[in-house]
């Protein structure tokens, strides 16, 4: 069985944000399945999705610090700057991390590891609302 819905996330500040509860709440709207896969597709090119540490917020702060160091704004060689100094670095960060995740479902729930959480990487200073297309497949 295939099911699909579009989830709109509220605007968040720049950085890495746990959205596991948002995804779990959206999953609860689907007809329950015992086993399957949930595909998440973030429909933006200046934000990202990743799965990582869900307990210590300093991990998310360190992610933001590292990515800002690795892909610095105002580097001088970016030509795509009409939308601001944060725009081209946001596109690169989005490509490095990706915009989709494929997650296992067991007994109708996300089957994540104990310390795993879903991050939205907001790479713009003012990215606005973000949309994630959830596609659920399973029995």
From TrEMBL:
It holds the Pfam family YjbQ. Belongs to the UPF0047 family. NCBIfam families: TIGR00149_YjbQ (TIGR00149). PANTHER family: UNCHARACTERIZED PROTEIN YJBQ-RELATED, UPF0047 PROTEIN C4A8.02C. This is Secondary thiamine-phosphate synthase enzyme. It comes from Shewanella fodinae.
